[in-house]
Design brief:
The chain is α/β, with parallel strands linked by helices. 39% of the residues lie in helices and 12% in strands. It contains eleven helices and nine strands. The longest helix is centred in the C-terminal third of the chain and has 19 residues. The radius of gyration is 18 Å and the shape is globular.
């Protein structure tokens, strides 16, 4: 089983075919960065058209059982998520609405301060807001997973404490391996896994040691050592693959509507445009390289299977459904 917990590709039939060539059974795709509710609904509509056009390649996923169906029918199950809470605007009632539409993940921030929490690029970190506490409880109730990939340290640890269900960092790496503001310090990862949460390892070059020149050996050794520290059962892949996107999309990702000028975050660490991917992970056909690389570190077959998909499958199965009414 192969599950990728984060991609934001320039979707096309070619990419859907590559998913099948790579044996990718499920992908969590970003359908909102800075879009408001109505704009996000339009993105749901676009995906409905793709499901109609390519029913032999992809299908909509809302539960782990859909991954089983996808595997049996040689398709990829597509799960939706937001990298910002902008689709719920300032209306907590929209949390249930977006879950009904098919959203299964929502980040509480994207780099900046939001109405809910603090982003990782802010100088100050006051943590989860009053609205954030209420939204976390509502997300717990309906089965919308809390994702803190772009959030600051205090906010992430507070979210893990407040949430009654496991939370995730869907796409980042340990800060101790590659010091970047988007990568996570050990105490932050520990807070997430203590609650049964998940860390998805990112292949985005700015998150990698030596960026596009990062070796497969270095990346897989990092995963193996993280497993030693935090337990292999909490780890998966969240590649952050942004395949075939034009450089103009980077500006939308980083800036949205909040600034009149392009903001590059960490200066030289976040130069304009998309950086080159490592040669061993260009697209969805390269997941086999990760599997072999993990085996080469000495990880057992069962441990490799866990990281490549089984852990995410178990997490999906336990966290996408609403809580019982008496909870």
């Amino acid at each position: 089983m192969r599950i990728d917990a984060l991609q934001y590709a320039n979707w096309s039939k070619t990419i859907f075919e590559q998913m099948r060539e790579g044996g990718v059974d499920a992908v969590h795709v970003t359908i909102s960065y800075h879009e408001n509710f109505r704009e996000t609904v339009l993105n749901f509509e676009q995906w409905n058209r793709w499901f109609e056009q390519y029913p032999h390649l992809i299908m909509k996923g809302v539960s782990a059982k859909d991954i089983d169906i996808a595997k049996k029918t040689n398709r990829t199950a597509i799960f939706f998520g937001f990298q910002n809470p902008s689709p719920i605007e300032d209306d907590i009632g929209l949390v249930e609405i977006v879950h009904t539409l098919g959203a299964r993940f929502m980040q509480l921030t994207y780099n900046n301060q939001s109405l809910l929490a603090t982003g990782c690029y802010e100088d100050e970190d006051p943590g989860i807001t009053r609205m954030g506490e209420q939204v976390i409880r509502e997300m717990n109730r309906v089965g919308l997973v809390i994702d803190m990939s772009h959030s600051s340290d205090r906010s992430t640890m507070e979210a893990a404490e407040i949430s009654s269900r496991p939370i995730v960092i869907s796409h980042a790496n340990p800060h101790s391996w590659m010091p970047a503001r988007r990568n996570k310090r050990d105490e932050v990862i520990q807070a997430v896994v203590n609650g049964g949460g998940m860390l998805g390892f990112s292949l985005y070059p700015h998150h990698l040691k030596d960026k596009g020149d990062c070796t497969l050996e270095s990346f897989c050794e990092m995963i193996a050592r993280t497993a030693d520290t935090f337990g292999v059962e909490h780890l998966g892949i969240g590649s952050d693959l942004c395949q075939d996107q034009p450089d103009s999309v980077v500006e939308w990702m980083r800036v949205g509507r909040w600034s009149k000028t392009v903001d590059y975050g960490e200066g030289s660490a976040d130069l304009p445009g998309f950086p080159p991917m490592p040669s061993w992970f260009k697209d969805n056909r390269d997941f086999g390289n990760l599997e072999q690389g993990l085996k080469n570190t000495g990880m057992s077959d069962n441990e490799v299977k866990a990281v490549m998909g089984e852990n995410w499958y178990r997490f999906f199965a336990g966290n996408f459904a609403p809580l019982p009414a008496n909870s």
